[in-house]
Amino acid sequence: MTPERFRELAETWGGDIARWPEAERDxxxxxxxxxxxxxLLRQQLAFDALLSVPxxxxxxxxxxxxxxxxxxxxxxxxxPPWYRRWLRPVSxxxxxxxxxxxxxxxxxxxxxxxxxxxxxxxxxxxVLDASxxxxxxNQ
Length: 139
Fold this sequence. Notes:
It is elongated, with a radius of gyration of 41 Å. The chain has helices spanning 3-13, 22-32, 35-52, 59-78, 82-86, 89-111, 118-128. The protein is built from seven helices and no strands.
């Protein structure tokens, strides 16, 4: 076993060789007899001891953290998704009106040629003035 492999296993599995993969244990015990191997294992054992101590959290702090998480979730749920904010029915009304006006303009451009045809003008006037009652309109 190389010193690099020994360091890799010690950093991965910790300072206790009994937790290492079984195929690597015998070779690791041989390397651990050396000065550098023993120092590395002692360093990893100290780190393992540091990680094995559970943190002490006061109940009031845990309650405040839980409340903050719940408030963040509630704030996220209260805000509608982006597509509902941007595509509200109220904001679609002007867009739809503009689209219908454009379609009507394209239809009129195709229906009325450059030279005036009385029948085409009368048809367009009948469509546009169908609901208008006046003294001067078509009746």
